[in-house]
Amino acid sequence: MLAHHERRTAHPVTFLRSGQPLPRWVNPALGGVLLIALLALAWWAYHPGLTGDFLFDDFANLPALGATGPVTHWATFWRYITSGDADPTGRPLTLLTFLIDARDWPASPHPFKATNVILHLLNGVLLAWVLWKLGKMLLPSPLGRGWRVAPGEGSDFPLPSVPGNHAARREPVPSPLPLSRGERGSEAAPSHPNLPGGETGSCWPAIAALFGAGAWLLHPLLVSTTLYIVQREAMLPATFVLIGLLGWMASREALARGRVKRAVAGMALSAWLCTGLAVLSKANGALLPVLLLLVEWIVLSRQPMPTAAAKRWHRRAVTVFLVIPSALVAVYLLYLLPGAIHDAPVTRGWTVGERLLTEARVLTDYLRLLVIPHANSSGLFNDAFPLSTGWLQPASTLPCVVLILALIGAGFALRKRHPAIALALLFYFTAQLMESGWIPLELYYEHRNYLPAMLLFWPIGLGLARPGKLRWAGVAAAGCILLVLGVLTWQRAGLWGDGTRQAQLWAAINPDSARAQANAALYDLAHDQPRLAIARLERSLPRHPDDIQAPINLIGAECRLGAVRRQTLEAAEYALARTRLGGQTAFNWFNDALEIAGKHSCEGLDFAALQAILDSVRRNPHWRDIPGRQQDLHHLQGQLDLAEGKPDAALGSFNRALAASPAPGPALEQAAYLGSHGYPSLGLAHLDYFATLPPGPKPGFGMPRIHAWVLRKQGWWPKETAYLRHTLETDAAERTAQTVK
């Protein structure tokens, strides 16, 4: 009898097994086939979107690929990889992955989008694995919960043997979903999936995992993450969160088997290394320890360690690897609160309180789109989402706040009886803490649901796959749901693959969005339809008089017809005197407008009109105390002075730009600008003036400081300055020689 027992417990630890062996049709091969089918369906659904264009923030981030030359050797690699300025980290891991698709700029969007889709499929596989492991831990057992342990075999510390009836005296595990009346009848009832005689209990988690991962993988709302190239920075943290979850669960099992060193190392890598990698992709990856703590508390704790020694090590690991980092995240978010309270009204025009009220409505809308999928949505342009200025302004604010609080409360209340539902709810809201909290980001973006929504469909899968008389109907319904989601995603991806149709639809869906109208107008101009662009922008202008996008694009559209109206110029002056955002947009537009004015190709857009626009920018109270904006203003004034044939005035403006914020980049750019317009001696004078200025402020903490160190170690600025100075001196000498002749 003892020998027989030893043969059954050859592994140091196994889960208590209940029920009969799996039926023949339920096996890993079938699960693999179904998973491959899901991946194929997802690739088919996303394939129409691979022909789409670069969009919006793509143009603000991807040109770094060629900013200091093609990334073809180590020097340019280090300059590129440290060039990010989003978050303190600069998101270098995301930048690194862009090198898979291009090494220079401009580039084709197709390889970027294909890589994003492949990463999305990988995340789907990891999610299915996570959900399968979580589901197995939620299966109730007729003997209760616990581990069966061989006496110390393979352990780092001795484990006592566990009597055969030890687990039977423990409290049974609640079901992840409510059981039917018949299922609650008796422990020996053969209809229960996890009791002796039940044949399908073990496949229940697999079916639920495939549905939960498939619904997330195929959900149309996530198209605006997967096919939006720059949002690879939202996808990569999800990858490392999933790897961290898998690693933590595997390490926990190793600890239960007595392999302490392996378990502690695995937990450290899962919690700390994966968090670090996630943060290097985007800041919200710092939430991984909090999410792991949630999973540990709600699900994994239902399978306690088998010995007192294992329990001690487990408590220490949870404290060191999860609780302390989670507390640090909470402290950091609280540390940001005073700055957010101060900065939000200045940079955004709303208070932190108004943002938090609005985010309740934003989260409600996210959940609506997740629960009721649509083939189309508002897309990237949600700048017109109405602000909540009070509990009933608009009237939906208070009900949405109550709903969100009720869902969070339900998560806590259901954690014992229905842990899958509780985990899905609390995971969602916890993962939204950074981007939907008090940090003064923009109010609404669909891609913020990519990580939080990962577990939302899993409880539905558990319900549909639950054994019973209607089991096959549930499985069939799950398959139909996945097919419908795939078709909806295919339809939305097709829209993302056609930039013109996408811009027109988003403009129609978002009539109050200045960004959506300006984006559509640019496509109108690209297709030589300036009158359509003018009509579109004229409708948008009165709705957002403080937004610069409608008037400056309207100027461009009218110039296509040969003349700009005075009221359009006045609208641009009005907006530029009041806007809080769009400094870089205005800077880029002015360069184009200056070229048009220099060619005298647009009646009404002359140097005097551009001077009036610059004067209006000087009156903008929101930009008055920002050194970077003041530097831009003086730089533009210098360009205008030079275009008007006033080189000495241009030199003075460029010098004032440097005085506002001394930096080598603007100094070289402005000196080169003077030289290229025929004034190399003034360019040299500008470099000499820069040499007299004190060093500018040190870059901010984080990646900008590392980037400055890389440039300094490479001698980048001295080399560039020496090269430019030599070029200017040569040009100046040639001009002097020509003058003498």
Mind explaining what this structure looks like?
A two-stranded antiparallel sheet has the order 1-2. It has helices spanning 2-8, 28-46, 58-61, 74-81, 92-98, 109-138, 203-218, 223-226, 232-256, 260-279, 288-298, 308-347, 352-371, 397-413, 419-431, 458-465, 471-496, 499-509, 514-526, 530-540, 549-560, 566-576, 583-599, 607-618, 627-643, 647-660, 664-676, 680-692, 703-714, 716-740; strands spanning 13-15, 147-149. The protein folds into 2 domains: 2-15 and 41-67 and 105-162 and 200-492, no CATH class; 509-694, Serine Threonine Protein Phosphatase 5, Tetratricopeptide repeat (Alpha Horseshoe), CATH 1.25.40. With 741 residues, the protein is an all-alpha fold. α4 runs antiparallel to α29 (703-714), α6 packs antiparallel against α7 and α28 (680-692) packs antiparallel against α30 (716-740). The longest helix has 40 residues, at 308-347.
Q: First CA to last CA: what distance?
A: 113 Å
- Gyration radius over CA: 31 Å
Strand content: under 5%
Helix content: 55-70%
Average of the residue pLDDT scores:
86
State the secondary-structure class: mainly alpha
Number of domain units? 2
- Identify low-pLDDT runs: 1-26, 141-201
Multimeric status of the protein = single chain
